[in-house]
Structure formats: C-alpha cells, structure tokens
Amino acid sequence: MGNEKDCKEVPTENFSKKYDRKLPFFTKCGFGVANIGDTIITEFVGAFLLFFFTNVAGLRPALGGLVVSLGILWDAVSDPIIGTMSDRCTSKHGRRRPFIMLSVIPIIISSVLLFTNVNLPMTGKFIYYVITIIFYWTSYTMFNIPYLSLGSELTTNNDEKTSASSIRQVFGTCGLLFSSTLPMILVSAYEKFGMTTNHAWSCAAGTLGFMAALAIFITWYSTRGWEIPFPPQSKSDPILKNLGKVLVYKPYIILIVGSLIFYCAFNTITSTVVYHATIVLGVDEAASSIVFLSGTIFGIILSILVGKLAIRFDKKWVFVVFMFISGTTLLVFRVVGIHSLVAQCIEYSLAHFAIIGFLVLSYNLLYDTCETYEFRSGKMLTGVMVSYFSFFVKLGKAAAIQIVGIILEIAGYQAGQTVQSENVVVAVKNLVTLFPGILLIVCGLIICIFPITKKRFLAMQEAKELRKEGKEYSTDAFQKIL
Predict the structure, then answer these.
(1) String of b and e for 147-160 (b: at least 16 CB within 10 Å)?
(2) How far is CA 81 from CA 146, 238, 239, 242, 421, in A?
(3) pLDDT grade for 91, boundaries at 50, 70 and 90
(4) Which of 40, 52, 59, 327 has a CA-to-CA distance to 228 between 20 and 30 Å?
(5) Does some domain include residue 480?
(6) Which UniProt keywords apply (predicted)?
(7) Is residue 4's pLDDT more than 50?
C-alpha cells in the first residue's frame, strides 16, 4: 500500500512512470464504494424531490420545479469553485481526500432538512426549501468534484484508471437500487410503524443520507496513501482564468454539449416515472418502486456488459450505439403505449442502455480528454475540467426539472387527485417517452463527432512517452484530437 505524501512533490521525467502502478482490487472497490453515495444523493432527489414538493409539502408544480432547478444551478456554480479549491489544496493528505471527508456529516443533516414538510405559508416554504437545497448541493459538491478528480489521480496507468472507473460504476448502479427503489419502501415502512407521512419522508431521507455518508467515508478510508502528489495549481491564477483555456478545446466542448442533452433526457424520464405509474396506470406510489427496481437490476447487468464492450471496441461508439438503442425504444413506446406496470418496467429497463452507457463511459471519455489536453497544453487541469464539465451538464438537469414542473402545471396537474385530466395524462406520457427519446438520439449524434477515438488516444500516449524520453515524435496520427 502507498503512504501519505506531501502534495507538493514536483513531477520529474520519471513522475508518470513512478506512479504507473497496479491498484489492488480492494483499493479499486474501496474507491468505487462512494459512488453508491453519489448515486443516492443525486438520483433520490432527481426521482422523488419534485414529487415530495407537490404531493407532500404542497408546493405548486412550477414552484417545486423552480426550487429543484435553483438548487441544481447552485450546484453547477459551486462545482468550479470547489474544483479550483481542490486543485490548489496543499494538505499533506492530498488535494482531494480532505474535501471528501468534510462532506460526510453535512450530507446527512441536509438530507433530513430537505425532505421535511415545514408548517409555513407558501412563500415561507419556498424560501426554506431554496436555503436547504443550497445546503444539500453544497455538501454534495464538497464530495463529488474531488471524488471524480481522485479517479484519475490514483495511478497514471490508463488501463487501471478504466478498470477502477468500471468498478466504480458497478457500485453506482447498485446505488440506483437504494436511490430509486428504497425511498417509497422506506416511507411505507415508517408509516406502518405509526409515523405520519411527513415524518416518514424525513426519516426515509435521513436513512438514505446516512447510507450515502457511510459509503463516502469508506472510500475516504480505503484510499489513504494512494492519491498521487501532483503539485497544487497556482493560487495566483483567477478561478475563471482556466475556463477560457479549456472551453476552446473542441473535444471538451462536444462532450459537454452531448452530456448536457443526455441529462435533460435522463432527469425528464426519472422525475416522471412515479407520475406515470400513479396517473396513467393507476397504481399506488409504492408500486412504482417495482419500475425502478427492474431498471436497476437490468442496469447492473448492463454495467458489466458495457465495461467488456468498451475494452473490446471503441468506447465512443459503444456510447453512441447505446444512446440510439434507448432513444429509439422510447419513441416506439410512445407509439404503442405503456398499458401496464410490466410494460413500464420493460420501457424503463431498456432506457438503461443510455443511462448505464453514459454513467460508465462518460467520465472515461472525460479522463481521456483531460489527458489529451495535458499533452496539448502541458497542464494537468483535471479538477477544473471535471468541475466545469459538471457545471454545464447540471444545467441540463436544472432545465429538465423546471420544464417538467412547468409542463405539469400548464397541463393542469392537481396534487392528491387520483384522476387527472386528459391533458395531464398526455403530458406525462410525452415526458416519459417522446421527449427523452428524441434527446437521447440527439446526444448520440453529437458524440458521433467526438474526435478522441481509441486509435488516436493510443497514438497520443505513445508520443507522450517519446516526448518524456526526449525522443522525436509525430502528431500526424492524432492531430484531430489536438
């Protein structure tokens, strides 16, 4: 195992080779466990917060959507700030792990506060939820950005990075089981113990927050001594200075745009699953957990398949094909209809081709982009590039949730009513099939022009080694990615 090192070690010609190391399987698993927490934090809110606001807290759909969107926008704004702070960190314990540890307790507290129905007027409730959701997403960002950056700073071996990332996503997919299936089960269980619906939601959120925090703590503990001591970024550079540097890099821009569109689709479908199950199919809220469970089980299988396909083929094209499969499937279901809970389970499971394809491969594509940018510019700006990437894709999340809330309100959604108008039914059907289906196909088309292929990336790595050894090299084979 590695030892704790001073983060100020200066890279030499042998720096990359020094840390070109195999990671023990248990270290990879320890690193990946936190992705359970990551998934719980993000997908619990994405799937259930709008529903909690409209059906438990009593907020109007548009107002509830606005709160969720403002929270995600704050999360996006705080990403580059935390990313830059992490890049500049000079702690002897590394640049990333101190931030990860600081997030643990706030995540538990903010989870409970966010899912508490306060006895206030509508304006008071709106202000309360805006404040608590900002607290929630700040706690998350303190963990998320350093954690994602840590994924490329445990080893300089690209195959080991990919392996660790694949294991991380297996845990992330398991996290979907907790974030999407468990909430309604917990709420029902707490209600059976005699709690009111309000208290049941708060306790369910606290339980999930504790599970997320525990997973994050395990990763913090398991990665001790493995963080590579890259030198901190200069504090003389303004936080926004690096934005101009990375946003002129074509592969980075393409990946951001494609990912933003994906999250518009992803958050649209996940946030309307419960609405579709209750309004269109007429089942109770707890039964919607079956839909999430089916998607999670299928997603776990797919996450293993995606890793193998990405190694055998070019991960870019695996990503594209999976987007097309899910996008086409959703459009077909809009035509033939979803008439039973089983049909919705099948529809949501097949949507996981895109969901798992993105979750497994997007950050591998981003890490390749970061490494290629380092070759191009001579600067390793992983924290900055991850945080700005996160910033822009979260705009897609915010837009999706706000649009869902607005569409439901325009259609005439009435919280608490078992029977809704035909306008609401049609709106929900479109939100769970048509709109995300079109967006996923557009996402796939955009990634088609992403220039970093497996062949070009390997050629760049060979040139990188030759450059470090002071030998002549050519960029002809990978000029398009520079």
Answers:
(1) bbbbbbbbbbbbeb
(2) 11, 11, 7, 12, 45
(3) low
(4) 40
(5) no
(6) Membrane, Transmembrane, Transmembrane helix
(7) no
The pair of three-digit structure tokens given for residue 24, joined into one six-digit string: 């023990």
Please report the pLDDT score of residue 180 as a whole number: 79
Please state, in angstroms and rounded to a whole number, the distance separating the CA atoms of residues 259 and 146.
20
311 domain-assigned: yes
Tokens representing 14 are 């042998």
Amino acid 450: pLDDT: 93
Which residue, chain included where needed, has tokens 């089981």?
177
Q: Nearest-CA neighbor of 5 among 65, 76, 84, 95?
A: 95
Residues 379, 333 contacting (CB under 8 angstroms): no
Identify the residue with better confidence: 440 or 223: 440
Flag whether 15 is in a domain: no
Q: 432-467 b/e with 16+ CB inside 10 Å = b? A: bbbbbbbbbbbbbebbeebbbbeebbebbbebbeee
Q: Is residue 428 part of a domain?
A: yes
User: Is 425's pLDDT higher than 90?
Assistant: yes
Helix-strand-coil split of the chain, %, nearest 5? 75, 0, 25
Is-contact 89 95, C-beta < 8 A? yes
Alpha-carbon separation of residue 46 from 102, 152, 265, 402 (angstroms) = 24, 27, 12, 11
Neighbours of 388 (CB within 10 A): 23
Q: Which domain holds residue 359?
A: 33-227+243-450
Domain count, the chain: 1
DSSP class of residue 415 equals: T
**Which pTM value belongs to this model?**
0.75
